[in-house]
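Private note to self, pasted from the team thread so I don't lose it. Backbone tokens:
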């Protein structure tokens, strides 16, 4: 009888421990600065989607190139948003794309030179100007580095780009406009003039390949949140 009671108590403790166990946590890396409203909105979107699938969620900022290194090394479970080319074989990234478009990002060209504002794209290219781009921003980087006749200048961060633009070391800077406010606070420079939209590209979530079986369920959960009236990233889409 005593042995039966001990077994029942042990089973009860085991059941309580299982019920109280914390859900597994997935950690995503994100190249959007953590002090940006876009980061906060994206974090909320993912946390709600992951919660519906029985997961906890954490998201951390890393500079673009560092994020790729850490994700390739398996230090994170996914990336908060990258272009379609992120899964290209040439990059050798151990990722699988989640089949849902998070947002359409607009990369703008900006400058401090008044004379450039009225020039069409073809003339800007023909002038042989110095074009700054953020290294690791694949869609923009692939285009800018393949334009013949310009000087392509790779930069480590939007803040660095704004400083170089302000000091006249580059003529144009191209990066997502939604990151402008955060970058200006870090760079402490005057606000450049916007020439206009240079490129538009969609962003997708990516999971490390060790979680590829989760991709269909995550796509469904994210899509439900993105189409809901209280979609947290709606202001940035």
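Design output:
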């Amino acid at each position: 009888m005593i042995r039966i009671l001990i077994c029942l108590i042990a089973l009860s403790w085991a059941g309580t421990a299982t019920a109280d166990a914390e859900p597994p946590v997935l950690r995503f890396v994100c190249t959007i600065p953590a002090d940006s409203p876009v980061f906060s909105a994206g974090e909320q979107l993912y946390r709600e989607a992951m919660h519906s699938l029985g997961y906890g969620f954490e998201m951390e900022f890393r500079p673009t190139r560092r994020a790729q290194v850490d994700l390739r090394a398996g230090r994170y479970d996914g990336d908060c948003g990258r272009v379609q080319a992120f899964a290209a074989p040439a990059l050798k990234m151990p990722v699988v794309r989640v089949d849902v478009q998070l947002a359409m990002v607009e990369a703008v060209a900006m400058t401090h030179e008044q004379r450039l504002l009225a020039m069409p794209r073809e003339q800007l290219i023909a002038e042989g100007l110095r074009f700054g781009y953020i290294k690791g921003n694949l869609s923009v980087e692939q285009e800018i580095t393949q334009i013949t006749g310009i000087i392509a200048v790779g930069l480590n961060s939007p803040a660095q780009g704004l400083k170089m633009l302000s000091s006249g070391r580059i003529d144009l800077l191209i990066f997502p406009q939604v990151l402008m406010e955060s970058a200006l606070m870090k760079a402490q420079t005057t606000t450049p003039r916007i020439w206009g939209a240079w490129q538009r590209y969609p962003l997708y979530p990516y999971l490390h390949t060790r979680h590829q079986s989760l991709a269909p369920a995550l796509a469904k959960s994210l899509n439900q949140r993105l189409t809901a009236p209280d979609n947290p990233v709606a202001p940035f889409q």
